[in-house]
Amino acid sequence: MAQARSLSQAALDDLFKRCMNWGRWGPDDQRGALNFLRPEHVRRAASLVRDGVAVSCALPLATTPGPQNPFPVLHHMLSDGDLDNASGSTDWFALAPHGPTITHLDALCHIFYKGRMFNGVPASKVTARGAGAGSIDTVRGGIVGRGVLLDIPRLRGVDWLEPGEAITVEDLERAEQAEGVTVGEGDLLLVRTGRHARVRAGAPPPPPIPGPVPMLPLAGLEWTTLPWLHERKIAILGGDNYSDCTPSGFEAPQGLPIHTVGIVAIGLHLLDNADLEALATACAERGRWEFQLVIAPLILERGTGSPVNPIAIF
User: N or C of the chain: less Cβ packing under 10 Å?
Assistant: First the structure.
């Protein structure tokens, strides 16, 4: 199993500069790489709908606490049907979208690097009242475009990648060739590791990586893929994980190079913890790994992210 190669602070700084999109769309831009997704891309994605079949790419909201779910969703019933003369039911949810269990979209204010977020905005713009720039409501109109799934376990002839296994540029390009697709400008790229197939098969959960913020070891993209992601001009990056391979190879134990360079330098909204198993099956059945993808975050003004239910339409 290939783990992520070591990444020094100096090398991360160099990657950040190589992949930086600050100022590319003007000094006040808050959409980042979503600017690559233009109306012609949205129209072209609509032409991929042929069967009228929709596939959800979201996990159920996880309400059971445990080592793999340190911040469970709280769900309380406010009124229910087992009361006398009940006329309906209502409930209440509270959740923290970030972390390893909820399918969510990261806003551009989610990650800072050296006191800045995307486009050089000071991190101090995010206060106790929420994000004053780069918040998730920037994409209140939703995201619709061509989704592309690169299925790495299928490429390697396995059911899933093991925790900590790194995906390289060679893997991404071999998956393109095997599937007959080319990732390009404005695409909504999803990369499958088979994480949830492993869980459902009953494989033992990996112990968290110790540190101030415990993290799960997960298969994912190695930091060497960042220039490739930048050059391809994708609009969204998503996976069934954090996108980052963890451990990531960065000298800081909780360092996430894909998050740091992807969000802060490139301006990528990251889709974390998607469930790509049904989507992988639908793609394999049709022999095509492109589809219309719809991602609709909640309009959470000043929010740092939002739970989402991405829908792939064939």
Answer: N
With contact defined as beta carbons under 8 Å apart, do 279 and 293 qualify? no
Same domain, 177 and 227: yes
Dist. CA 97–CA 115, nearest whole Å: 23
Overall number of domains in the chain: 2
32-52 tens-digit pLDDT: 999 999 999 999 999 999 999
pLDDT score of 228? 98
CA terminus-to-terminus distance, the chain: 34
Alpha carbons 299 and 230: distance in angstroms, whole number? 27
| pTM of the full structure | 0.96
Q: How many CB atoms lie within 10 A of CB 69?
A: 15
Segment 293-297 mean pLDDT: 98
239 and 257 share one domain: yes
Q: Are residues 162 and 289 part of one domain?
A: yes
